Amino acid sequence: MDNVNHPQHYGGKIETIDFIEDKLGAGFVPYCLGNVIKYISRYDKKGKPLEDLEKAAVYLGWAIERMEKDAQ
Q1: 59 and 43 in contact (C-beta within 8 Å)?
Q2: Which residues of 6-43 are buried (b: 16+ CB within 10 A; e: fewer)?
Q3: DSSP per residue, 2-38
């Protein structure tokens, strides 16, 4: 299982991030950027620094995608 893009503990009928995006609407980008800050600020504290930086990159990518979509 991919702990960055599809963590096993988030399994279900829909992707949790899709549900969050639907519920937050315009608040989704700030949510993603908050998670970027979280993962970057603690990347060297939990023993899996690369994984936390990869997670930050995923959240940043989602924020960028949403902003591009909203700009269209």
Answers
A1: no
A2: eeeeeeeeeeebeeebeeeeeebbebbeebbeebbeeb
A3: -TTTS-GGG-SSS-HHHHHHHHHGGGHHHHHHHHHHH
Q: Residue 50 above 70 pLDDT?
A: yes
Residue 25 Rama label (left phi>0; alpha psi -120 to 50; beta): left
Q: Is the pTM of this model over 0.85?
A: no
Cα–Cα distance, 52 to 45 (Å, whole number) = 10
Q: Are 17 and 62 in contact (CB under 8 A)?
A: yes
